Amino acid sequence: MYKFLMIFSILVFCTVCAQETSVCERQEKCKDCIGQPGCVWCAKPNDNPNSHCKLESQVNVATWCPKNKLTNPTRVFNKELDEDLNSGKYSDAVQIKPQRVKLRTRRGEETKIQFQYAKAANYPIDLYYIMDLSASMRVHKNKLAKLGGQLQKVMRAITNNFRLGFGSFVDKPLMPFTSTAPRRITAPCPDCARTYSFKNHLPLTDDYRQFSMQVKSANVSGNMDAPEGGFDAIMQAIVCKNEIGWRDNARHIIVYSTDAEYHVAGDGKLAGVVEPNDATCHLQSGEYVKGGELDYPSVSHLNQIAKENNINVIFAVVDKGDYVYNIYRTLQENFENSGVGKLDGSSSNVVDLVLDNYNKIVDAVRISDNARSSVEIKYNSSCKYPTENGCSNLQLDEVVNFTATIKPLECFERSWNFHKILIKPEGINEVLIVEMEVVCSCDCEKPSSQDYVTNSSKCSSSGHEVCGICDCREGYFGSTCECNVKTASTTDNTDCKKDPDLPEICSALGSCKCGKCVCDERPGDQLIYGKFCECDNFSCIRGNGQPCSGPDHGKCACGKCECLAGWKGEACSCRDTIATCVDPRGKGEICSGNGQCKCGECQCNIDEKKYSGRYCEECATCPGRWCETHQSCVECQAYSTGLDKAECLSNCKDFNTTLVETIDTRTNDEGVKVCTVIDSVGCTITFKYSYVDRQMVSVEALKLKVDCPIPTDPLVVILSVIGSILLGGLILLAIWKVVTHIHDGREYARFLTEAG
């Protein structure tokens, strides 16, 4: 068995080597040769003058090719800027190391770049508070004015370089969003200012007293419909960098406070506004002046602009029930680097809300880049809690080691082979700049090279000798350009056979002219190519009805798919990402920590816990799924139904159930679970329980049952029974009467017969 495995392994290895060797040997030009990983080019080989491209690992380069005739670009990597990480306590914070590198590499060659990230303890913070100043927010505005000093104090505990700004919004001053009646334009409601889209009351400053004064002096306004125009405000606050005062080297936070939903792109059409939002600053004297001309931005547009400008958004939603809060929670899930929280009835918890969401944002890091699809970059890290391209639950000054594996997938025209890739932690302005050159041409192809001879006699004066081979002028071909396309003919087809022992010429996909294969033409973009017409760009494995699943997934090269960045598999149909395996409502863990991400989908662990679900978040036997197990105890303790009193006291000793008026069913706390079940009398009951280390801590049950069956009225039952008895008696009496009448008739008839 052992010998068999050894022989099998050797055969597989030899097959792979043979395939790689074949890829190199069919390359006919130097630039094509070095575009294949591991291939090297020799302008004047010592052994076979017609074999210029070989696999480096399968040839003795020193004996095969003179050193000055060899083209084998080597990887060059240098660190250009490499400052140490700095927490920012005594000088400017540095959170990523190194800051700039240079890389020279070949197509298909992987380079691992090591870099580090550490969350600085004293990183500058710019916090801009945008408030909905419609009339319903009056009490919240007054509370915020009083809490400015406390907010400053709390944030100063995080960093001594903190600045605060204030802006407000209402809605577009157009019907049907606001009233345009003459008396309503200047005073839409009692003691209200005129309606406006957005005002920048206070640019970022370190004077919290100015913040409190501006909030206090800002007057509320009014509008007509329920949604507000807050998206206009967020867009202007992001793009008006100078007017707001955003600093380059600071974390940018926008706190968006409201009690209503929002208008989105397309809503402006209701007022005749059809021009899309242009993401450009339009502030004059601190007020947005294009609200009546430009539509609201869309969610995706706003998210993209926020990401480009390193903006983190915290949605602070006034608690008026779950409807509005759930809208912003859904928005937060589709808005990168954001948070959401509930403000209480007077916004007295605004400081805690801001601090809590700020910590959630900065305690995680996600690495992104601006690389084109022709460059594949994959990230790995050393952190304890890995997420997609990042980490969560980071501590101050905790150093995380990242590895970026960079592989260029394509060669383009010369200017496109220079890449400036920005690798950065999302939400901050610090970057690792990778200046990468992809070597896609050979020095011997330059006219100044000694291996470039114009109108060479070796090429029958019908072409140039380039890198040891003839580059024939149009209309000529052959190894020495000796053939004319119009007059060429040949009787010797040996050079057109991939295998001399086989009769097949040009892979049966072309014709042999002057010892060279001329491949058949195909319709459209389909192409047959190669030294022996052995390659094509259409016979690869298909996905989505197209070779290699289409040009946005990969390309077909000589019968094999070469996938673009983000895709993998034989048909490039498999997502090369873990993003689709991370629950957006979870902790950022891959497959909830209960499975593996394969081809962009979770494959859950199969053990005694039996995980399931899209993100392996479901578990029938885990403590988080004990609804049915605890239903009977909750029911008897809270509603005195189900188990009798003795059984309840005997079997339900682990916890006590408390009746409450309301239960928040949308909890994201892993230690809290909400159950909705049918009780023993047919009613729907809801209860919530929390547990720590598989031990029940508390149980709350909703006081009101729902969907209960209608109880039966006893009087109705009694009367129904009596009525049924009477009805049955009457029916029996009628039957008896009919039977006796028939019987008497028969007897009387017989009497008459006997008497006669």
Automatic annotation (TrEMBL):
Residues 29-442 form the Integrin beta subunit VWA domain. GO terms for biological process: cell adhesion mediated by integrin; cell migration; cell-matrix adhesion; heterophilic cell-cell adhesion via plasma membrane cell adhesion molecules; integrin-mediated signaling pathway. It is found in: Cell membrane. SMART domains: INB, Integrin_B_tail. GO terms for cellular component: cell surface; focal adhesion; integrin complex. Belongs to the integrin beta chain family. Pfam families: EGF_integrin, I-EGF_1, Integrin_B_tail, Integrin_beta. Residues 1-18 form the signal peptide. Residues 627-713 form the Integrin beta subunit tail domain. Keywords: Calcium, Cell adhesion, Cell membrane, Disulfide bond, EGF-like domain, Glycoprotein, Integrin, Magnesium, Membrane, Metal-binding, Repeat, Signal, Transmembrane, Transmembrane helix. GO terms for molecular function: integrin binding; metal ion binding. Gene3D superfamilies: 4.10.1240.30, Cytochrome c1, transmembrane anchor, C-terminal, Laminin, ntegrin, alpha v. Chain A, domain 3, von Willebrand factor, type A domain. Disulfide bonds join 30-39, 33-65, 189-192, 240-281, 383-391, 411-675, 440-444, 467-506, 472-481, 512-517, 514-548, 519-533, 535-540, 556-561, 558-591, 563-572, 574-581, 597-602, 599-648, 604-616, 627-636, 633-708, 652-683. It comes from the Eukaryota. It is a single-pass type I membrane protein. This is Integrin beta. PANTHER family: INTEGRIN BETA SUBUNIT, INTEGRIN BETA-PS. The chain crosses the membrane at residues 715-736. InterPro entries: EGF_integrin_1, EGF_integrin_2, Integrin_bsu, Integrin_bsu_tail, Integrin_bsu_tail_dom_sf, Integrin_bsu_VWA, Integrin_dom_sf, Integrin_I-EGF_CS.
